[in-house]
Design goal:
- The chain is mainly α.
- It is built from four helices and no strands.
- The relative contact order is 0.13.
């Protein structure tokens, strides 16, 4: 396989994994929350943390690496055209992701305590979950915007 094609393939796979795991994590947590069972929430948050370690973090690291190499090989300007807004949106996404990873770790700890009938942990979990959901919505819209820029190259 030609190196440029391999690079593009890895980039697209990483983007797909990044988006897919993000959606899967959101759906997994939301389903557990709607069920109302604290043991199920505890289990779901452990799965979210595992998904982040195994899939989300490697994809998040591969995306800028493969994207930058493609830009340099393809002689694309990093200061004009569609790349600067895409890079800015991705930086925003990484900031949301960093906050979300910390929030998910806290949610996992809280869900575990809440499963042992800790009322304060239950209240804190619900409060943090609301903020996590807003961050997730913003992240999803941002990911879609990056995908749109990547696919259309800014020419709509």
């Amino acid at each position: 396989m030609h190196p440029v094609l391999l690079l593009k393939t890895v980039h697209l796979l990483a983007a797909s994994v990044f988006f897919g795991v993000s959606l899967a994590n959101g759906l997994l947590k939301t389903a557990a929350d709607r069920n109302g069972d604290w043991l199920r929430r505890d289990w779901a948050m452990q799965q979210v943390l595992l998904n982040n370690r195994l899939f989300m973090l490697p994809a998040a690291l591969l995306l800028p690496a493969t994207g930058l190499v493609q830009a340099l090989i393809g002689d694309h300007s990093l200061s004009s055209g569609w790349l600067p807004p895409a890079i800015l949106l991705y930086a925003m996404l990484v900031a949301i992701l960093a906050w979300s990873f910390r929030a998910e770790s806290a949610l996992a700890r809280l869900a575990h305590s809440a499963a042992a009938d800790d009322a304060q942990a239950q209240a804190e979990y619900i409060s943090l979950s609301r903020r996590w959901s807003v961050a997730g919505l913003i992240a999803t819209v941002t990911m879609l915007a990056v995908f749109l820029l990547m696919v259309t190259r800014g020419s709509l």
